[in-house]
């Protein structure tokens, strides 16, 4: 601060009423060599400040595009993807200094209710929500979205190898037809393998005759978690928490508005642009994970 004061108050052609550098250094108790070292270092300091301002602008942009959901790890990954050589500690400091924060998700209350008369399928997942090959292990669930026109229901099917939403359906009810439609979409676009596991909770929709008939037609193996245990289907439930937190709407004006928001989130944002840390590929999107995994699993020519 003293060196900056000296620089502002020194005598120059534009400031003939200023004081000599030697006099101000003596009065302020600093050395002239220190002042001139400050002048020499100032261009580099100003350049670093300019670069930091640009980086903060990039961080704000990434944060806004993610619906203010990304925290330090994903913003760091996104910066590296566009060429910035930056570590997470620097990003953490800058986000803290500029009050840029990711979203903290709250736990979701379950929707599906078990059919006490229906026999459950065995749990073939055992809370192992990983898979090495796409089309071999799926998780499914249903959630509700409040609108001014009434409840709007969403059923999803997620491929655990890629975390891609490969199937989904929306309706003003959560009867068996909703989960059947979601699984049909997954079968049409998810390249499901023979014997693929289709995991869900024990809700009556998943123990219905319609759903189990489709499971058999597709050559899948049905799997179910225990009644009342959210952890047995945690991967599917986590996605709904993410969707609601990142969309941010608490109640939609209409079912059409809810449908449009969900479609955009799944097809445009989540599957194609949202970064997730993969144990092998680092921070990649679900679509990129599918492409990379398929490439690695392809037989050599």
Describe the structure.
This protein has 301 residues and is of the alpha/beta class. It has ten helices and seven strands. Strand 6 and strand 7 form a beta hairpin. Helix 1 runs antiparallel to helix 2 and helix 4 packs across helix 5.
Give a quick set of tags describing it.
14% strand; five-stranded mixed β-sheet; Transpos_IS3; alpha/beta; two-stranded antiparallel sheet; RNaseH-like_sf; 301 residues; 7 strands; single chain; IS3 family transposase; Transposase_IS3/IS150/IS904; 10 helices
Show the helix and strand layout:
Blueprint: H1 2-9, H2 21-28, H3 32-65, H4 72-81, H5 88-97, E1 137-147, E2 150-159, E3 164-171, H6 176-189, E4 197-200, H7 209-218, E5 221-224, H8 234-247, H9 255-273, E6 276-278, E7 282-284, H10 286-297
Parallel strand pairs: 1-4, 4-5
Antiparallel strand pairs: 1-2, 2-3, 6-7
Helix pairs in contact: 1-2, 4-5, 6-7
Strand order of the largest sheet: 3-2-1-4-5
What separation lies between the terminal Cα atoms? 67 Å
Share of residues in helices: 40-55%
Overall, the morphology is elongated
* Number of DSSP helical runs: 10
Q: Element order, helices and strands?
A: HHHHHEEEHEHEHHEEH
Range of strand content:
5-15%
What structural class do helix, strand and pairing data support?
alpha/beta
What is the mean pLDDT?
87
Main beta sheet strand tally, sense and closure: 5 strands, mixed
Tell me the Rg in angstroms.
28 Å
Number of strands: 7
Pfam families: HTH_21, rve, rve_2
Function: Involved in the transposition of the insertion sequence.
Protein name: IS3 family transposase
Region (Disordered): 106-129
